Structure formats: structure tokens, C-alpha cells
Amino acid sequence: MTATVLQALENKDRHLFTVHEDTPIREIASLMTRNRIGAVPVLDEHTHLRGLVSERDLVAALAGHGMDVAHLAAHDIMTRNVPTTTLDEQILKVGRKMTDCRARHLPIIDNGAVIGIVSIGDIVKFRVDEAERLASAMQDYVWRNDHGSVGH
């Protein structure tokens, strides 16, 4: 059985920060910095996903608008048509989707609502932890069954 997004996020604080389309960029940057997050979903007045503002979007806005960036809002810089995932989607599929779309963050959708966000860091951490658990289990098996001894 392949692990799912839900399993990958079991031990993660899943507090979700979101912004609205008219949220000023300065406020978004402050929110992301204070909470050490790399992206924030942008919701419309009906709380539907409209896009995502990531660190990459902020840098592109600064490069494109210079000091005028302070007058922009989320709807001016957000990435639209953002790929999403669900809690039951397999981790390997999510990782492939992120790689193919060159996305580092995917909003998690449940019943049409954004309920969280999964990052490439979450996927990598889960896969590394999974590999360490497997290696430890294999080592325990070898030593427990004395398969490690040479020449009987």
C-alpha cells in the first residue's frame, strides 16, 4: 500500500493560513515570514480557491514592479489554475505532480474547500523517514535472524 497525503501530514501542524484576493502584498509577505511558510492559498469571497501566492511569486513581483510592488495585491501576482491534491492521493503521485508542474506547494481540497497545503518538503521528509524506518526494520530482521553471520 502506498502512503497518502493524510499519512504524510499526520505529525505536522496543519494550521492553514489563507488570504483574500485583495490582500496587499506587504501583508502577505509579513504573514509568510512570521509563520515561516512558503506559500499561501488565495480565496475569493466565497472561500473558493482562486490561486496561490508563493515566495516565487513575491520575487517575480519585486523583479517586475520594483518599488511599485507595495501597491499590488494577491490577485495581481498569484499563480492561477494551481494544481491541487486530496488527503487520499498517493504521495508518489503528489510528488510526480509537483515535479511535472514545477510546484513546491499544493493546496489540499476536500469537498470543494481548501483544508490545508502540502509542500515538497513535507513529501521529502515523509519519504526519508519512511526509508529510515525500512532500513531499521531490515537491520533488525537480519540481526534477529542471525543472517549477518558468515560461514556456519
TrEMBL record:
Keyword Transferase: no
SUPFAM superfamilies attached to this UniProt entry: CBS-domain pair (SSF54631)
InterPro entries listed in its UniProt record: CBS_dom, CBS_dom_sf, CBSX3_CBS_dom, Diverse_CBS-Domain
Limits of the CBS domain: 12-69, 78-133
CDD domains, A to Z: CBS_pair_bac_euk
Record-linked SMART domains: CBS
UniProt xrefs under Pfam families: CBS (PF00571)
Highest taxon, organism lineage: Bacteria
This protein's UniProt keywords: CBS domain
Gene3D superfamilies, sorted: CBS-domain (3.10.580.10)
Alphabetical list of PANTHER family matching this protein: CBS DOMAIN-CONTAINING PROTEIN, CBS DOMAIN-CONTAINING PROTEIN CBSX3, MITOCHONDRIAL
Protein name according to UniProt: CBS domain-containing protein
